[in-house]
Amino acid sequence: MDCIFCRIISGEAPGEIVYQDDEAIAFRDINPQAPTHILIMPKSHIPSIAEVEDYGLVGRLVNIANELAKREGVGERGYRLVINSGPESGQEVPHLHIHLLGGRVLGRLG
Ligand code: 5GP
Ligand code: ZN
């Protein structure tokens, strides 16, 4: 499978991993858009949020994102969780992931 995130998960490619458990992993974005920019995702290859079947998994990923926000010190300041899905969203990597962005004032969506 030619998926960069699967290669990071398997250890074939490097990544700055900040959390993992049996089903999920989180590592820092290689091109951070904010002082805190972490990607949280399932270890299994689900191409996008549009193809999710287990919505419990999505809740657990959000729980991890919230905990990482606290650990990064942005829990009180505020942060943004983003999930891109499909071509017009700009999704680059077709392996479901949540962006955790924080540590600066984030502009309005648009
Ligand atoms: P998307 O546009 O798919 O929602 O987000 C993909 C994100 O993955 C981008 O923010 C991009 O910087 C990040 N990314 C792409 N390739 C790599 C990589 O090899 N390692 C890491 N850590 N992040 C990556
Ligand atoms: Zn993958």
Task: From the structure above, extract its key features.
single chain; 110 residues; alpha+beta; HIT family, subunit A; 5 strands; binds guanosine-5'-monophosphate; binds zinc ion
Describe how the helices and strands are arranged.
Layout: H1 4-10, E1 17-20, E2 24-28, E3 36-42, H2 55-71, E4 79-82, E5 98-102
Antiparallel strand pairs: 1-2, 2-3, 3-5, 4-5
Supply Rg.
Answer: 13 Å
Number of strands: 5
The share of residues in extended strands comes to: 15-25%
Question: From the 3D coordinates, which CATH architecture would you assign?
Answer: 2-Layer Sandwich
What structural category characterises the helix and strand content? alpha+beta
Helix count equals: 2
Which parts are unreliable, with pLDDT below 50 for 5 consecutive residues or more?
none
Give the biggest sheet.
5 strands, antiparallel
Instruction: Report strand order across the widest sheet.
Output: 1-2-3-5-4
Form type: globular
**What ligand species are in this complex?**
guanosine-5'-monophosphate, zinc ion
The name CATH uses for the topology is HIT family, subunit A
What count of domains describes the coordinates? 1
Mean pLDDT: 97
